[in-house]
Amino acid sequence: EMSELKPYLAMFIIQLMYSGLTLLSKAAFNGGMNTYVFIFYRQLTGTLILVPLALILERKRAVPVPLSFWTFCKIFVFSFFGVSLSLNIQAIALAYTSATLAAAIVNSLPASTFFFAVLLRMEKVNIRTKSGIKKIASVLLCLLGVATLAFYKGPQLRTTHHVLSRYHNHQNPHHQDHFSSGKRWILGSLLLFLSVIIWSFWLTIQYGLKQASRQWFAKLSSFLIQHGYHQSASDHSLFLKFSGSSTIAFLIYVDDIVLAGNNLSEIQLITGLLDAAFKIKDLGNLKYFLGLEVARNKSGIHLSQCKYVMGILSDCGMMASRPVSTLMDYTSRLSASSGTPLIDPSSYRRLLGRLIYLTTTRPNISYVVHHLSQFMSSPSTAHSQAIFRILRYLKQAPGSGLFFPTNSSLHLKAFSDSDWAGCLDTRRSITGFPVYLGDSLISWHSKKQPTISRSSSEAEYQALATTTCELQWLTYLLNDLHVSAHQPALLYCGNQSALHIAANQVFHEHTKHIDIDCHLVREKLQFGLLKLLPVASPHQLADSFTKSLSPSSFTALCSKLRMLNLYSQLEGGSHE
């Protein structure tokens, strides 16, 4: 398939360009150009090409970092090893050897980089596994091929102007006819190896740059802790400070920060300190964060991704499509064998990835998106039709999102459900749950269970255990926020057998196969951290997270997810 061949085609083009550059360099040296002068012009040309691109493409995305002495030293070291020492040694070696040998030895770069990565414990090799043996064999094969070219050279290929003048030899002291001296050939080969080693070292030390976001978070965390904030044990990106009735909270995602609190003077103080230390930019009241649109009024807060949805519809050419009122045809069930395989599955994967992020504010599409994601490795036409139906559903209300009312209580409640053997391919069950804080939906889940359940009761009990873990984490998080629970969290389940298993601590022959970790539910019941309650099917809010529903049932349950549409419906035809 063309999509699978693209990486190989790109590598072939890169190799072709590099081979041409090596031949050009060798021709320049044979023509008498000084190696240092050639490298200077090469770097100057690259700079003139890259600087405008960096200013246009990277300036807005770049994170402003103060040019400290340590940062300057890093730039110097990277430049010295990467674009100075390695290239100059390679140029001298190329003058002593041939373009063929230079290109071959440079291709040993992955092998030498892998060696450094193993030495610095960035990579692991287990010689007892097939992957470890393949890695070692590939490295040895690469080095063997390079060594063969280094110590065995073929006949000389001369051009018409192969006799160089004394002037040219004087201008380029590194140039000699490498075939006239085996020692110079060996010396050039060793210099090429040295340039590759330096290049590998340059790539390895740059690994620290990949940790830049981690280092930034560590520095910001240290700064906040020094000023009286403590890091939440439940969410390490959350920092809190309590002083009397004053509460200040920081939520951090890389260099995006949300600050909330009820003490304006303290907020102004900490933002001033942050600006002095890190040169931050205050964007005012929260309106947009990581693609989420935030709208506030006296009645509550609304989260949506309208702009994100519109972008998806526009990119997929669905702006003029007819909206539909349901996500899936509840009478049909998809499997891996449904439809015929797509010619280009990459577009399906990209679209599904965008929809997965959309579930951040659209819990009503969680089940269908999860269901279609299991076919990502080999999507078919049937799966593609289903994913485009999701887009048609989104078109009817692109601005729909979560609403958090200000008058909501602070009591946790959850609904647990499972669809026993719901996966047609693996016969694994589906776990689904929504968790509410008062009337606000704050967490939800729709995922295939890791094991196969022998009965619907076992599947429901596993779903109960998963929901209990989520309630436990949310309880810890609320405790960090100084929100005390005056009564246990309520957990609703529609399966009577699962309720009896949780309540009955006596060992029973028919339940001994259930995993021990599932009995976490019993422990929390004993400690009074949650209360199990039955729920009738019409009021089971977790149904929309485990199965496809009829239009009437789906609409009724969606209305109970506390979702609100702040925008007008798009035009484009009538509903189906």
From TrEMBL:
It comes from the Eukaryota. The chain crosses the membrane at residues 7-29, 35-57, 69-93, 99-120, 185-205. Residues 207-326 form the Reverse transcriptase Ty1/copia-type domain. It is found in: Membrane. InterPro entries: DNA/RNA_pol_sf, EamA_dom, EmrE-like, RVT_2. One of its GO terms (cellular component) is membrane. Keywords: Membrane, Transmembrane, Transmembrane helix. It is a multi-pass membrane protein. It holds the Pfam family EamA. Residues 7-146 form the EamA domain. PANTHER family: DNAK FAMILY PROTEIN (PTHR11439:SF498), GAG-POL-RELATED RETROTRANSPOSON (PTHR11439). Belongs to the drug/metabolite transporter (DMT) superfamily. Plant drug/metabolite exporter (P-DME) (TC 2.A.7.4) family. This is Retrovirus-related Pol polyprotein from transposon TNT 1-94.
